[in-house]
Design brief:
Elements (H helix, E strand, L loop, with lengths): L2 H10 L4 H11 L13 E5 L4 H10 L5 E5 L5 E6 H13 L9 H8 L9 E2 L6 E2 L4 H11 L3 E5 L5 E6 H20 L2
Parallel strand pairs: 1-2, 5-6
Antiparallel strand pairs: 2-3, 3-4, 6-7
């Protein structure tokens, strides 16, 4: 079979389930999914004492992240359990055996007094908008190695959070609906 024939056949064949899923993820906005399971994060002022963040995480085991906001209630960064793990390791063991800190990050964590001192700053692509597609959200989750992202409006105010579990739940429901609809035809 020649290359042209092969390409024609490929382009005219029905999409595979994986291709269909990718298309659905690329055309479904975050707004359809991010409220499925409620929230797994909390908002705190970026100037909050670090002790406040630690106390919240310790008291709420299901909490996935602390979204930091400025005085105008705009998203400025996030503190995750991983950030607190790094902070605790430095405080308890001085960072011995760990080489995954930059010098500035090391000093920022060691001298941390406020939530903003150990946060991942908003300069990172660590949020999504309601109109962003699920594919973009999944890419950001992978890039940042986090399973929860803040959902922001156009003024950078936090509307909620999007969790991987919500995307997975939505995908399973969506796929089931497609399967049942195709059986009836």
């Amino acid at each position: 079979m020649g290359i042209i024939s092969w390409l024609k056949k490929l382009l005219s064949s029905p999409p595979t389930q994986e291709e269909e899923d990718n298309t659905v993820l690329g055309t479904t906005p975050v707004s359809e999914v991010y409220r499925l399971h409620g929230t797994a994060s909390a908002m705190v002022p970026e100037e909050s004492p670090l002790e406040t963040v630690i106390t919240r995480f310790a008291g709420e085991p299901s909490l996935r992240g602390m979204f930091l906001v400025d005085s105008m209630q705009r998203f400025t960064g996030v503190v995750t359990r991983i950030d607190l793990l790094k902070w605790a390791h430095l405080k308890l063991f001085g960072g011995k055996g760990r080489r995954d800190f930059t010098v500035s990050e090391f000093y920022s964590f060691v001298d941390a007094k406020k939530a903003k001192d150990i946060c991942r700053c908003a300069g990172l692509p660590f949020s999504v908008g309601e109109e962003d597609m699920l594919q973009i959200a999944l890419d950001k989750m992978r890039d940042n190695e986090e399973d929860v992202l803040p959902v922001l409006n156009s003024q950078s105010e936090i509307l909620g959070d999007l969790r991987l579990s919500e995307i997975l739940s939505w995908m399973l429901t969506n796929r089931k609906d497609k399967f049942e609809n195709s059986k009836g035809t």
